[in-house]
User: Fold this.
Amino acid sequence: MADERTRYFRRLSRLRRSARRWSVTAGGLGGAAAVLTPYAGLGLADAAWAAGAGGAIVLATWRWVDLRALAAQPAPPPVDPAQAAAHSRARLVAAVERLPIGPGVLAEVRRIRSRVALRGTSAAEPWARLDRAGATFTGLRGRLTGVAEPAVAEATAADRSLRDLAARVADVERAIRLAPPETRRPLQEARVALSGQLDSGVAAYERLVVAAAGYVAENARPDVEHPAAARLTEATDLLHGVASALAELRATDPTVRTS
Assistant:
């Protein structure tokens, strides 16, 4: 998408070309009218030449007036390339989100980008565990109803917080590699503390996912036989009874036929 400065110069160029084109047209029609108009008066064809020349002159005048008015305005300042790229990226993301599969595609792209960003750091392994647990919880969350609904909000907030914590652990590790030796100790202590929080948080999240799976399993297991299974059992018994009755009837009367 063109920025304001680009659109300004495009419009200026279009007005300049239009003004020149109508000026040439007005000159050509005016010259033709002056040559072809008889001295004794105007005929119908001569009037058409004159009207065309007059209209072209008016349009050319308007174009030159518009061109001068636009040229008198200051051109918009150039856009920062970083801002232009961010704006284009935001527009692309918004366009993809409007597609039926857009949110899922964007989520997968963000997940892969986060995994690549953590590669080579101690946060990569806890993040992979968190990602697996999050994928499992996503499949369960639609069945967490009733008293289990608050767990969905808690798990969503925890997932977001733990992913941010993993990114911070990776950032601190990269800073340790660049820091002078005498300044690394505080950073290493901070990394150890953050890594401990990350490991304990991921373990707690995994336990939550296991508890959610247990809730879904127990909630789906009735105390009695499933209605569908009961109906199938009744239909099976009925067919067995009908088959036995037909067999007995055929044994007593060989002329009996079944359809």
Observations:
- DSSP finds eight helices and no strands in the chain.
- The chain has a mean pLDDT of 79.
- Helices lie at 4-36, 44-72, 81-97, 102-117, 124-140, 149-178, 184-219, 227-252.
